[in-house]
Design a protein that fits this description.
This protein is mostly helical. It has 15 helices and eight strands. The strands form three sheets. A three-stranded mixed β-sheet has the order 1-2-8. It has a three-stranded antiparallel β-sheet with strand order 6-3-7, sandwiched between helices. A two-stranded antiparallel sheet has the order 4-5.
Length: 393
């Protein structure tokens, strides 16, 4: 399945967008035999139920029954959709020109799993979407039931709700009431992100896909802010994004520490598994300590990620967040090399997508190294304004 937003705080909620997109694509691939008939049935039924409830945006906005704030947000997204086509070169089709009121908190729920002593997630492979590291359900109860099966098999698991829905352009996807949470810039960003996946999507490479779409979202949001006369908020937005990068770097470091631990102490060769479990927990304790230092020394006490760290962390939960931001700075460098022109950027990114997997990763790493070298020379914007901005998200 393919969707989005599985995390407990708004600051990390935007990083799991593939988790709703795959749902229909999985269902379309039922003949592949790579999942149960029951799973495909819920996917097909959930999708077509959603499609059957679509209403034209103008009809919803003109209805006296529509809540004024919902109307305002839909008008904003309608205008942002036009902006995305005209200024960002995103697809001009019928996606996100209709609306569905689901009355739900999330549109889908997604399960991520890893072995207890591995940072390689379990994957599910489908002919259209390729191999992805999650399995999505329209009903939360179904997701919890499947998660319980995986836990019984010894997997670390994570389950989270997704607020957006996409079929990568195969169908005319609607806007959902679940997508309307948060600030105006978040609403526009979600729209840009989902449309970006219709420009470029690489099978079996979630990290590439999400970083590409996230960069389009973030750069598009800045240009959009300028277009509506809110360019004064961009420095604060940049600082907000920098905190996301700091957070992701911390998770990447933790992930690396766990990979090293499991490599040096393979479970099959460890006499005392409980000692390995304790060593694993010690790595997560160190992550929390590093977070507190980062919060105090780099973020002026900003606590927007406290809710995430307050919950028990395992391998699956770490992976469900850390996958999607790693390569974003690499795409930023590529965009600059493309002269700040989205058409040229899309062309260059498409060329990257055609490379074999190892070569593509090497190219991304090279550009990420360049980005890291450049970032040291850019001081952060005013922290007070950034704090106010982040709390509005």
């Amino acid at each position: 399945m393919l969707t989005k937003n599985t995390q407990p705080t708004n600051h990390v909620a935007n990083w799991c967008r593939p988790l709703g997109r795959a749902l229909l694509l999985v269902a379309l691939a039922a003949s592949s035999g790579c999942a149960t008939v029951g799973y495909y049935a819920q996917a097909v039924n959930g999708h077509f139920d959603l499609m059957s409830k679509r209403q034209p945006l103008e009809q919803v906005m003109n209805s006296e029954d529509t809540d004024p704030e919902i109307r305002r947000k839909l008008e904003l997204l309608r205008d942002a959709r036009k902006f995305a086509v005209a200024e960002l070169g995103l697809p001009n089709n019928n996606s996100y020109t209709t609306f569905v009121k689901t009355g739900k908190k999330n549109i889908t729920w997604n399960v991520v799993a890893t072995p207890e002593f591995s940072m390689s997630p379990k994957t599910w492979c489908f002919p259209v979407a390729g191999c992805v590291s999650y399995r999505g359900y329209f009903a939360e109860a179904d997701a919890k039931s499947y998660e319980a099966e995986l836990k019984a098999q010894g997997f670390d698991t994570q389950i989270g709700g997704a607020s957006a829905y996409s079929t990568l352009g195969w169908f005319d996807d609607p806007l959902l009431d679940t997508m309307l949470r948060g600030s105006d810039i978040r609403l526009a960003g979600v729209l840009f992100h989902e449309l970006a996946h219709q420009v470029l999507y690489v099978k079996d490479d979630s990290s590439f896909n999400e970083a590409f779409a996230t960069f389009v979202e973030q750069q598009g949001a800045k240009i959009w802010l300028e277009s509506i006369g809110r360019q004064d908020t961009i420095p604060a937005y940049d600082r907000y994004l920098e905190r996301q990068v700091d957070f992701n770097n911390l998770l990447q470091k933790t992930r690396g520490d766990l990979v090293k631990l499991f490599r040096e102490q393979p479970p099959s060769e460890v006499a005392d598994i409980e000692q390995l479990r304790k060593a694993k927990l010690a790595v997560f304790d160190t992550m929390l300590e590093n977070y507190e230092v980062m919060k105090a020394e780099q973020w002026d006490g900003f606590d927007g990620y406290d809710n995430w760290f307050a919950k028990e962390t395992n391998n699956a939960r770490l992976i469900s967040v850390s996958t999607y931001l790693k390569w974003v700075p690499a795409f930023e460098v590529l965009y600059d090399e493309s002269g700040g022109d989205f058409k040229a950027f899309y062309k260059a990114a498409t060329e990257w997508s055609k490379l074999p997997g190892q070569d593509r990763s090497a190219k991304l790493q090279d550009y990420l190294d360049r980005a890291n070298e450049l970032s040291a020379s850019h001081p952060p914007p005013d922290s007070d304004s950034a704090l106010k901005f982040a709390r509005s998200q």
